[in-house]
Amino acid sequence: MAPSGGRLVGVDLARALALAGMVVAHVGAVPQTVAWSDPSTWSAVVNGRSSALFALLAGVSVALVTGRTRPFAPPAMAAARIRLVVRAVLLVALGVLLVALGTSVAVILPTYGALFLLVVPVLRCPRSVLLSFAAGAVALSVPVALATAALFAHADAATAQFGRTYPVLTFLGFLLVGLAVGRSDLPARRTQMLLVVMGTALAVAAYTVGAVVAPVDPAVAVVTGVPSADGATGPSAVVQEWLSPRAHSSSVVDVLGSTGVAVAVLGACLLLTERRARLARIVWPAVAVGSMPLSVYALHIVAIAVLAHTLGPTEGPAVAASFLLGAVLVAVLWRHRFRRGPLEMLLAAATAGPR
Question: What is the per-residue pLDDT across 119-150, written as a single tens digit (0 to 9) for each?
């Protein structure tokens, strides 16, 4: 599914940052939480926020391929919906195959497929409605995550990843915000500035509230995707579950803060590259990575599986740097000859429909 109109380089750059963050989170041996007084923990900023950015950009992509600021009329939208359903099914299938490799990575693709199916009915909704649905998803994230936590306590890896690590309702909020953002005039400088300012303000406000009223205790072991009481009891536990800034906790603060970061990063990437040919050329290697996100994502999980089989579990900053360098080299060499990544070409062929 190719975007209607010219490609937005800033979106590809933002995707590259999301991919880089996820790779670092997977193989960089980063700490669980950030303590701003300890620089050695700062790499933990990638936890949760990278996957949130990835999901928000998926929503932007859906908007770009379904009419941008003016959603397709019903006949064209019906065809777009069919393509999106096919894409969703293929993403789930690919995700299941990657999970079957048995790595320690929680694969996000099955959740992605479910999200694409869920947004099919709302593709023609105005931005205000999309944001209202996103707000509802945020409000329901905590109670749904708590209510379903027991269902995944003894689940296998694939089920736990799908329902707990990347909870569908929480990530639906990210995707809906991305869909609403994608319906905006993204090439306009005013829009880009608004994204940076509003995203930054939302992130600062959310994380400030969380740090003040529900500070994270790094010593407390938690389950990813489940709101944590951080050892508190009674009313304090409720406050922690709803307002903890802990990454991947599905709390209101976590979801709003991660959304703000994602929106601000997208705006900044668009500001850096749109109508700035020189800067766009400088960051082109990263843009190449972001232009084939599915291929790079799948390849890095395959590489993790191969390394684990041959060398055993391998993590650390040097490993993460090697993965990132390898991703850039593969993407640059591939894009030198092809416009799309290999998996992107297969998806495009599968969703092209009759000609």
Answer: 999 999 999 999 999 999 999 999 998 888 77
Distance CA 349, CA 253 (A): 40
Query: Token pair for residue 284?
Result: 């082109």
For residues 44 and 28, is the Cβ–Cβ distance under 8 A? Answer: no
Q: Identify the CA nearest to 55 among candidates 152, 136, 230, 172.
A: 172
pTM of the model: 0.94
- 318-343 confidence digits (pLDDT tens): 999 999 999 999 999 999 999 999 99
